[in-house]
């Protein structure tokens, strides 16, 4: 399944790369016949699409490579780097677009053949929207930041092109050429904002920032499949690198169990976590022995060493499970209350 996912991601990003080249050519042709600064801005931004899609294709190819001696955690983080490069290129394009728009606002030039040029832009909107939506859907399904970033870029390009069509229509209705440059400035600001969002998410991934949505998904899996033998889970950490998911935690088990039983329980624990994720999942579990304080919330029946009666369950949530301490402190507080 993992191999098929990687091939699908590569085919999608290759489609995006080829489409970006064709659509960029159409936009420059539209600029050639119209001399519209807004159309030129859209065409220049599409060059970024080509570069970004090419880099994203390489990053997805690299992220699919197996672990090796130099990369024991795999190559999935390259997708964060790819998204960061794409975001940075978008911001650079936005700054250039705003600069060119200000220049045209100060020194206006005639605009021609707007209707013909708009037809080419309309075609690019349809293609970009279709491919961008597909990339977003598959990127979220496969947890690929590179696909999501490229899909969002294409969708942003479509939105900007819609704004462009509207500004061209206003120019044709009113005859005010300055609308062309104002539309470009607004487009540049919108583009810079999206580029900043993509870059911020990329930096967060490279810095191993907590993904609250991912963490909650892991905690929900543990809640839904909780076994009486799982006395306590703490020091939980989860990180997504491309399609690869890495989870590590401490699992509290009865201290009197034999090593074989501990091994089997941990193995089942890992398999439950792996089954909840479609990509490659690596789980590291550190086994902790129970303490007498754990008896208050331990549900193991007929325990030969029980020191206290069971009192209550402790609700598992992300805030509790990420702490590097057993949950008996939480139980003690609740019991005292």
UniProtKB/TrEMBL annotation:
InterPro entries: Cation_efflux, Cation_efflux_CTD, Cation_efflux_CTD_sf, Cation_efflux_TM, Cation_efflux_TMD_sf, CDF_Transporter
Occurrences of domain Cation efflux protein cytoplasmic (ranges): 211-290
Predominant subcellular localization, coarse grouping: membrane
TM regions (residue ranges): 12-34, 46-64, 76-99, 119-137, 158-179
Pfam families from the UniProt entry: Cation_efflux, ZT_dimer
Listed GO MF terms: cadmium ion transmembrane transporter activity; ferrous iron transmembrane transporter activity; zinc efflux antiporter activity
Protein topology in the membrane: Multi-pass membrane protein
Domain (Cation efflux protein transmembrane) ranges: 13-207
Gene Ontology CC terms: plasma membrane
Protein location: Membrane
GO BP terms: intracellular zinc ion homeostasis
Keywords: Membrane, Transmembrane, Transmembrane helix, Transport
NCBIfam families: CDF (TIGR01297)
UniProt family annotation: Belongs to the cation diffusion facilitator (CDF) transporter (TC 2.A.4) family.
Name under which the protein is recorded: Cation transporter
Organism: Dyadobacter luticola
């Amino acid at each position: 399944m993992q191999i098929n996912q990687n091939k699908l991601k590569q085919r999608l990003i290759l489609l995006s790369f080829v489409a970006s080249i064709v659509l960029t050519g159409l936009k420059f042709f539209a600029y050639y016949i119209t001399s519209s600064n807004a159309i030129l801005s859209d065409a220049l931004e599409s060059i970024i699409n080509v570069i970004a899609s090419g880099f994203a294709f390489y990053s997805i190819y690299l992220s699919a490579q197996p672990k090796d001696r130099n990369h024991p955690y795999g190559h999935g983080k390259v997708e964060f780097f790819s998204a960061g490069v794409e975001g940075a290129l978008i911001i650079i394009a936005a700054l250039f677009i705003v600069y060119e728009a200000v220049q045209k606002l100060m020194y206006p030039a005639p605009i021609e053949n707007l209707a013909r040029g708009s037809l080419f832009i309309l075609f690019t909107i349809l293609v970009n929207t279709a491919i961008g939506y597909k990339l977003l859907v598959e990127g979220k399904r496969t947890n690929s930041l590179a696909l999501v970033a490229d899909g969002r870029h294409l969708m942003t390009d479509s939105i900007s092109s819609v704004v462009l069509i509207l500004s061209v229509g206003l120019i044709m209705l009113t005859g005010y050429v300055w609308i062309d440059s104002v539309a470009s400035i607004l487009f540049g600001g919108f583009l810079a904002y999206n580029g900043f969002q993509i870059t911020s998410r990329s930096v967060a991934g490279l810095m191993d920032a907590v993904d609250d949505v991912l963490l909650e998904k892991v905690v929900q899996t543990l809640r839904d499949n909780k076994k009486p033998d799982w006395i306590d889970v703490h020091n939980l950490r989860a990180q997504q690198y491309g399609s690869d998911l890495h989870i590590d935690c401490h699992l509290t088990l009865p201290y009197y169990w034999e090593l074989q039983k501990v091994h089997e329980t941990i193995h089942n624990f890992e398999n439950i976590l792996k089954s909840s994720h479609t990509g490659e999942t690596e789980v590291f579990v550190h086994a902790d022995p129970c303490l007498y304080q754990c008896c208050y919330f331990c549900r193991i029946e007929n325990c030969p060493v029980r020191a206290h009666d069971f009192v209550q369950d402790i609700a598992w949530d992300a805030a509790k499970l990420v702490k590097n301490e057993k949950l008996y402190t939480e139980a003690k507080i609740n019991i005292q209350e």
